[in-house]
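Teaching note: in complex prediction, the entire set of molecules is handled at once rather than each chain in isolation. The prompt given to students was simply: 'Predict the structure of this complex.' The entities are:
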Amino acid sequence: MDGLFLLIPVLLPCLAAAALAHPAFQKPGRLNGLTVIAAVLELAAVAACVLFIKSELPILKLGRDLQVAFRLDGLGRIFSALVALMWLMSSLFSREYMAKEENQRRYYTFLLLSEAALMILCFAENYLTLYLGFELMTLMSAPLALHTQTEKAVKGGVKYLMYSVFGACLGLLGFFTVYTFGSSTVFTPGGVMDPGKIAGHQGFVLTAAFLTVLGFGAKAGMFPLHAWLPAAHPEAPAGASALLSGVITKAGVLSVIRVVYYQFGAGLLRGTWVQTAWLSLTLLTVFLGSMLAYKERVFKKRLAYSTVSQVSYILFGLAVMNSTAVTGAILHVAVHSVIKDALFFTAGAVILKTGKKDVTELGGIGKEMPVTMWCFTICSLGLVGIPPLGGFASKWYLAMGAVESGIPVFSWLGPVVLLLSALLTAGYLFSITIKAFLPGADFDYSTLERREPSLWITGPLLALTAICAALGILPGAITKFAGAIASALM
Amino acid sequence: MSDFVLLVPVFLPMLSAAAVYLVGRRSKKARDILADILGIGEFAVCALLLAYVCAGRVFSLEIPGVCGYGLSFKLDGFRALYALIAALMWMMTTVFSREYLAHYRNRNRYYLFTLLTCGATVGVFLSNDFFTTFVFFEIMSFTSYVMVVQDEKPGAMRAGETYISVAVIGGMVMLMGLFLMESRLGTLNFDRLHEAVTAKADLKELYLPGALILFGFGAKAGMFPLHIWLPKAHPVAPAPASALLSGVLTKAGIFGVLVLTGRVFLRDEIWGNALLALGVITMLLGAVLAVFSVDLKRTLACSSMSQIGFILVGIGMQGLLGEENMLAVWGTGLHMLSHSLIKLVLFLCAGVVYMNLHKLDLNSIRGWGRDKPLLNVCFLMGALGIAGFPLWNGYVSKTLLHESIVEYIGLTGGGIYRAVEWLFLLSGGLTAAYMTKLYVAVFVEKPDKPFPQTGRYMGLDSALAIGLPALALPVLGLFPSPLMGGAARLMQDFMVPDPQEVSIRWFSLTNLRGAAISLAIGAAVYFLFIRTVLMRREDGGRKRYVDVWPQWLDLETLVYRPLLEKALPFLAALVCRVLDNLTDWAVAALNRTLLRRKPIPPRNDGDYEPGDFTPHVRQSYTVMRISGSISFCLLLFGIGLCLAMGYLIFILLTR
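The expected output is the structure of the full assembly:
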């Protein structure tokens, strides 16, 4: 029964969250201390699970063929490790960032609870468990988005909630469809759809599949249900927006992978209108996100639009449906999480230390916060896809996958749009770097003061930057692992 | 010696860059010494490697898995020689920059980024597949940007913007080409490209990837119509950086073009013609711009562009001449070599002028060099070299290029190629003309008013950095067979798979005739055009250099910037904004129509309204917003669906 160990990563954050309610945890430092300790333990627990646990764990039997159950497969391993790592980074970051904020107990409680919800999502063995985790995650993370309680934050948070719930409804439609036309709802590589049952209902099943992708795609910020993202992310505290952008959007990606490759099956969708429509939507989103980020002047909002674009790179790879592209997609999940976390941390650090929210105000900031802005620069190079950093390898696989796929039009249009978007990414990120480090010959150096944040912020930033570089220079370990997963799915 | 030694010249500068930066924060003197040592060390390593290669050793190294695809390096004659040239230039410019940069801010940054660029550039020259080339090429592009904008003045920032935009766009386009190339050939490795191409009968489907890759490399080389960054970036960068940009970084672009021509489109006429056409335009346009320019460094920059055009012409002729292309091969290689060395000398001379006067326009620096024999001689060596004067190195390489065109005319009977020959000679003539213009302006004419005496105008190390390469130019030209011929023999294997014997009579009468025609054209242009049209007498005073080139006639400000900065982003952003708000608008429309709520009547706490038994509970703004939106309906809908699911499960349980 070593499957029971899978409960630890789920229960540990819940217990920690409950403990936070104890009056002993009143001071911000203690609240954060407990959260950090919980996050460290969680990372260790997840690492242990990822390395050692192979069996599955049924939790609640609801009927002959419906149950809530956990299982850790290859995909779950990557995602859960990523979640645990990012949560630790964010907890560390929050110590300095949240020090002056109100309602810290609420913040940390929901931070921990949403981690637990994500773990359920990662460990889900079947559609029902996934759905449960998905809804829980939405509800648990909404208070993070609402945290500052300004009018904008409330609006954004509510928008987030509604879009996600609507998306989940569409996901539910998928569940019913799979339940009716498939042989089981357990995630099986290659899909579970029963050709005998589908016969005659082709159109309905495809439509349902498309709507499901659209629904879970809402979480991943895919057009047309992306509008919550630029509304909610910038308003949350930086630690939370890093997670919303970096990790929770990836929960949408995970759900899409599960549904498309483990339930409907790539074979069913490949070559149909669903694939074409999905590819078009992802490419549209890639371009739209980058273009709007390029035109956006509020730092965090720019990053949020950038997320819209980058997560759709991943969805594009999934929509191409061959193993190279899916490998690239999985690699890009990791790369984008790491980079977007770091970028939001930078934005947070700048706001915390200078109060500047607009990118036009950032002249010379690189001289005041050199470590922070160097991390920003390296991570933005990675996001653009400049070798040898993070984003390059993943985009290489994504584009090669598209070229190899031989899908008419998209096999060349895809890479073109990806590169065009990379160009825009360069435009909206490098302009910040250039302004920060090269303020101009007439810049007044005498007003500069040292504003580097403490190690609680620079530490996670440096770690993420190092990971970004490592993922780019030696992506071998992940690509091999992801490649094995991807080829099993085809 | 293990093949891993190839990593030394690439990563030694890159890794020690951080050390130099950190040392520089403590002591500037120590940093300068360390940077010099690194420059000399890099040169020594490259020289050692060249010695091994000359002895017949070929290094090759593959590191699988790095960046996903794996890196691949190789060292043969051409690469060893060019790595050495790069190292030489880095050594000389590093030595020179100590004095030149003495009054600059942010010098630590400069050293950090030149060292990174140095490693990356050597990486490009040592790479053995397009992937590796691309990796180092991109690093080089970005790190060299910082060298361009070193002084952060508005002009520099604007030029830097152009530079980095061209670099990023070029890089992306090239990457697209690599995707297509890889998918169509299955390999990007230089050693296997040729086989893969011959296995594939149809070259046609390689033209598109080839063109895209050419775009990327051509952008760096300064090929028309992507040359726009070159005349802007060189004048504003510090002189040592200009020398590097012009002498080495452009050659990194040429390196890629050579690979494409020699391995993929070997002896392909269409490819050759395309390159020839682009080369002729670049060559001529650069020369014309240089003639019109009244700024010392801008003239040199335009001259670089023009010389790149000469090299491209040579590469084009390689494609056209087929089996008999050895003259073009030698000419191309040697002109690259000549140009690197010449531009090192010339840009550093310009650097000396700038470092003393902080001015570059010909009217202000006029006559400054009159009483400075060393600088005068060095500049003269460079000028004679680049003008193709017999007995200097430029003559040797230009003659070979010219001969290759003549040979092709002999084979095909002329036609349009006769025009190419004349344009070639004309460009050579213009080269002589603008170099004369510079030389006369700086070293012959009298100054308007005497310059203040400032003692020594350059230190010993700067003098050595300029003097030694300047000395090499006539030496190379005086002994072409052993030196230039030897270099060409080293380089030829890289450009053609099956080199043939070449015998050249360097100073034969026909060869000298070509040079003479060029120089005659140059003299004519100088006296009949430059001294009359481009110099005007101002109210009774003496003649001054004037810039008659119309300001608006500039590809960048006329086409690229309006299009890429204004028009396209505006249109795209407009469309995107509409799409972005589409969902929100749909929600709003529904809220206004189908889901419109009755207006909430104004009320006071405790008031009862007729027919209403419950007092109004004051709702908070938040609750109103939540309950008033379509999203709330969707939420309820979701809950409903959840309940439905629960019901279904219940049914299933009890079935």
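Point out the following to students. Residues 550-597 of chain B form one domain. The first strand of chain B starts at residue 59 and ends at 63.
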